[in-house]
Structures are given as structure tokens and as C-alpha cells.
Amino acid sequence: MLLTDLYELTMAAAFYENNFNPTATFELFVRKLPKNRGYLVAAGLEQALQWVESVCCGAIDVEFLRKHPAFEHVSDEFFSFLRELRFTGDVWAVPEGTVIFGQEPLLRVTAPLIEAQILETYLLATITYQTTVATKASRVVQAAEGKDVIEFGTRRAHGPEAGVLAARASYIAGCIGTSNTEAGYRFGIPTFGTIAHSYVMALEDEEKAFKQYTSLFPQASILLVDTYDTLKAIDKIIEAGLRPSGVRIDSGDLALLSKQVRAKLDAAGLKQTKILASGDLDEFKIFELNQRGALIDGYGVGTAMVVSNDAPALGGIYKLVETELDGTKNYHAKFSDQKMTYPGAKQVWRFRDEAGKFTRDVIACAEERVEDGEPLLRQVMNAGKRTSVAAEALSDIRDRARTQLKQVPEDVRRFEAPAEYPVEFSRTLRNLLEQVRQRLA
């Protein structure tokens, strides 16, 4: 439970000491999409729910808080309460792999106010990070136009665990696998590897290095060929009679080199040897390589994907939308400039054309029924426990993302200056907002 911001715990103490703990509903959403993002791919829900279901405050945690100067005037009863605190509420969320847009709740929490408030930091960190990476990865996969993309970014991620979760998010979005072995073990994601420059440099004999490696890994030898001279390395492979499954080019003019390498390999009868390219790639560079007719079979993408270099953070927010005390609901909204929020628990309804393409979304009150629309949020926790709906195979999540990305209008999927997808608020929700405005005025 300490994996949160201090003010979540000080607010919890203030609510407790003032005997105020009504049922509350919070919603997590992204107010405005980053530049050059026309959509988002939801990810991270599984890890978020695992934490929510198991979160507690151990004896050591409680003692740390007791000694913290911020809690100097807090009663012992609060720490006893905290020691026994578990999440007992309900959670609704869009399934992972769902394409969503600005203002749309990814997740809705209804629970006693203290329980719901304490979740804020972890939920935001977990869901917005994986959603950020999944969205970036979907763009890279789109740019590859059917060619393989492997996630290579753990060494550039903001910490080892971020690297593992980035591998998961990238796989959801369409990458065929990752270089991260832990992600392969934990999530069953296919793992891939080549050799590093250090292997060639340590032996000082490039041909010897290639021979040793392919003899040990005959079915999985992808040789890095740009340590010294890319084309000469290809000649050495051919002259040695090696038949690697692939070669990787990590520097230079990748489009030109890929054509030259392909010609040499094909002339030597190595038509089955694939060419993998890497080296600070992103969707824009891959698109350019395809435009230049690069003969590349797959891409290894690292830094740009795991840190989403052009849009490294989502402006995710977690806002209180309603409370209920003694059977009476009270609706809450924020009215500050450029940060207005809508009150009340919500559902998102999606509309499609006859071909299955998305046409518009409507954000409505949770109890509304919007005719001909498809509701996106579903209950994933009930009374503090995950529902059967929450137990999804990663392959199913990946299939959902692949299907939905094809259903996003092409102009919304543009890499630069994408069209804005229509997201509307229902009349009932707009009327509720006005009622709250008048009440607060």
C-alpha cells in the first residue's frame, strides 16, 4: 500500500478521522490525446487488478507511517483501520486491446471512498504506461506493413520491470515477440535474440565468430553483420558455407544495404536467410524504409517503443464523479479552465458502419441504454474479487487489438495530424453536468 503518493494516505487519514467514508466512484481516463495520436490501445488492466485484489498495509508499513511526521496528530485507531484495510469494491473497465479515445473512461472504481482513493497512483502508473507503449507499438507495426516487428527495448526502458511490461504491451499491439527473456517466462511471449558486437569483437575473427555461433545454434542463428563492414561480413558468411536463419543490420543506410545484402544472399542460394534491421527505428523511419523499397523482412525496435519517444506520457487522470451516503447520490464535477470533467458513473457506447468500421462513440450515464451502440466497459471486479470476465488469455487480448485497429478509420490512424474521432456526450449526461454546475454556483 505504500506504493502510492503520500497525499493518498493523508487524505485517507483525514476522511477516517472525520468519519467520512461514503461509497465513491472514480473514473480513470485521458482528457486529451498527445500530439499525433488519434487513438489509444488500452493495456495494463491485468497487472492493475492483480494489485488491487491483493493490496494491503503490512505491520512494517504501518510502523513507517506512524513515525512519519505528517501523521503526528493521527489517532492509533486509523493505523488499526489501515492494517485491516482491503479492497471490497467493484471495478468496471474496457478490456485490454480495446481501441479508445480521449475523455473515455478506461476504468471505473466504486468502493468506500478511502479504498477507492488509495488506488489512484498505482492504477494511473500501471494503465497509462502500458497503454502508452501499446499505442506506440501499434503505430510501428502499422508502418511495417505486415513485416515482423520484435520488441528490443528493455535496456532503454525506465527500469527492468518497465521493460517487462513494455514487452507485454508491445506484444498486445502486434509485435511478434520480444528480446526480454523474463517477459517470455512470465507471459509466454515468443523471445528472439541475435548476437552482439561484443561477441565478434571478443573473438577478433568475424568468420570464426559466425562459425562458432551457427554451429551451436543452427536453427536460430541471426548474425549481426555490421561490426566492421556489412558487405564483407556477408561475403565471409557465404565463403564459409554458413546458412544462418537471418542477418541483422544495425547501422548505415539500411535501405541500400538491405538491397545489396539481399542480392549477395540470393546469388549464393541463401534465399531463406532473412534480413532484420535495427538501430533507433520508429514508425517514421520504418515507413521511409518501405517507401525506398528496402528489402527488409523484419525490424527490431527498442528505445522509440518502450519510452514512446514522441509522446512519452499520457495525461491520465483519476477523478471523483459521484458519492453515495445513506441512499442519496451526490454528483461531482470539475469546472476549472481546460480541465472540466463530467459527473456521474459512465458507460461508453460504440457505433460501427456496415463494414464494421468505427463511426462514433457516445459517453453516457452508466444506467443509460444507447440504442444500436456497443457498451465498452464491463465488470472486472465484484466485491473486491476479479470476475471471470477479467481472466483473459494474452492471445485473445492481442487478437482484439489486431481486429479493432483495422476498424479504426484510416484518417484517425495517420502518423501525423490524425483526424479527430467523433466522441459525444449523451444529452442525459450533459443535463447532469448543468445540474451540478447550478448546484455548485
Quick synopsis:
With 441 residues, the protein is of the alpha/beta class.
Could you characterize the architecture of this molecule?
The protein is 39% helix and 19% strand. It is built from 16 helices and 19 strands. Helix 9 (197-203) packs across helix 10 (206-216). The longest helix has 25 residues, at 120-144. The radius of gyration is 26 Å and the shape is elongated. The two termini are 37 Å apart.
What is the gyration radius calculated from CA atoms?
Answer: 26 Å
Which sheet architecture does the biggest sheet show? 7 strands, antiparallel
- The count of β-strands is 19
For the biggest β-sheet, the strand order reads: 13-12-1-5-3-17-18
Structural class by helix and strand composition: alpha/beta
Ends distance: 37 Å
Percent helix: 25-40%
User: In DSSP terms, counting alpha (H) and pi (I) runs of 4 or more, how many helices?
Assistant: 16
Name the overall outline: elongated
Question: Hey, roughly how much beta strand do the residues contain?
Answer: 15-25%
Secondary structure layout:
Blueprint: H1 6-17, E1 23-30, E2 40-41, H2 45-54, H3 59-67, H4 76-84, E3 90-93, E4 99-100, E5 107-112, H5 113-118, H6 120-144, E6 148-151, H7 160-172, E7 177-178, H8 181-187, H9 197-203, H10 206-216, E8 222-224, H11 230-239, E9 246-249, H12 254-267, E10 274-277, H13 283-291, E11 298-301, H14 303-306, E12 316-325, E13 328-331, E14 346-352, E15 358-365, E16 374-375, E17 378-382, E18 385-386, H15 394-407, E19 423-425, H16 427-440
Parallel strand pairs: 6-7, 6-11, 8-9, 9-10, 10-11, 15-19
Antiparallel strand pairs: 1-5, 1-12, 2-4, 3-5, 3-17, 12-13, 14-15, 14-16, 17-18
